[in-house]
Amino acid sequence: MKKVCVTGATGLLGTNVIIKLLQDGYSVIALVRKKSGWLGEENKNLKLVEVDLSSDLSFMLENVDCFIHIAAETRQDLLDYHDYRNVNCTLSAHLLTQADRAGIKKFLFVSTANTLGFGNTAFWGTEKAPQLYPFTHSLYAQSKLEAEDYLLKNCRSMEVIILNPTFMIGAYDSKPSSGKIIFWAWKKRLVFYPKGGKNFVHVGDVARGLINAIEMGRSGERYLLAHENLSYRAFFTKINRITGQKPVMIPIPDMVLSFLGIIGDGLRKLKIKTNLSSSNMKALQIRNYYSNRKSVDELGIQYQPVDGAIKDAIHFFEQKRSVI
C-alpha cells in the first residue's frame, strides 16, 4: 500500500483528494492545524496529525512515497507580498527540503491557473503561456509563481509536478472558499454579474487529476486542471436553472468595477484590508479561459459537467445548514 502525505487536508480540495486517495487504497498522513477540522469519515488508513508545517517533519515522513502540498494562503485582502510569500513560497521550499531529506520520490504542488497566461473566446490559455495582467499584479498569483519556479529549479533527486487548477466548485467547501460564488446568485431576486468569465471545474476532477499525477504525471511539468469556460452570466444561469430560480440579471458596467478597484487601491495605501483592488476588479472583466487538453491526454482525466459541481456544492451547503 502506497503512503501519501497531504497538507491542506481540511480545505475544499484537500478533503476531496484524501477521500479519493482512501477510496483508491492509499494510506494517508494528513497534516492539519486541528483534527476537528476534518469533514470526512474516519478511516483506518487515515492518520490526522496536528502540526506546524514550518517545523521538523522528519519523524512522520518515513516510508512516504509521495508528498502532496495543497495548503496555501489564498485570501485576497492581504496588503503585503511577504504575507503571501512566507506561506506560499518559503513554506513550500521548506516542505520540499523536508520531503527530500526523508527520501520521498515525488512532490506534487498545487498552484493556480493564474500563474499561466489565460485566453478568451477565440483561444484558450495553456501550460506554455506566460502569466498575464491582471495576475502579474496579484500578490497571491505572484507568490504561487515564485513557488513553482523555486520547486522546479531545486527538486534535486525528487520528481516535482505542478498542478494548476482553475476555479473549483463542489462539496466540502466548509469556509466557504470558492463556493462563495454560489451565494452570489443563489436565492437572489436580483443578480448583478460582471461581464467577464472564467474556467470552472468540478473539485472532484481536480482531486482525480492529482491522484492520477502520482502515477502518470511527468516530473518538471505543469498541468492545467480545467473544464468549462463560462461567462459569469452563463454560470449564474446554470445556478438559476438548477435551483429553479428566475431572478433579474443585471450586468455590472466595467467602469463601475474599475472605479471600485481605484477605491480599493486607495484603501490599501491607507493599510486598510480589502478585497478591492484594480487587479482584482480587472480579473472580473476579462475572459479568463484555459484548455485542459494536456491533463486529458497525459493524466487521463474524464471531466464531468460543472452542473454536477454546482449541485454537489448546493447540497453540501444545505446539509451543513440543516446540521447547524
TrEMBL record:
Taxonomy, superkingdom: Bacteria
InterPro entries: Epimerase_deHydtase, NAD(P)-bd_dom_sf, NAD(P)-dependent_oxidoreduct
Residue ranges annotated for the NAD-dependent epimerase/dehydratase domain, each copy included: 4-225
Pfam families: Epimerase
Coiled-coil stretches noted in the UniProt entry, renumbered to this chain: none
GO terms for cellular component: cytoplasm
GO MF, one annotated term: aldehyde dehydrogenase (NAD+) activity
PANTHER family (UniProt xref): NAD(P)-BINDING DOMAIN-CONTAINING PROTEIN-RELATED, PROTEIN YEEZ
Name of the protein described by the UniProt record: Dihydroflavonol 4-reductase
Species assigned in the record: Chryseobacterium pennipullorum
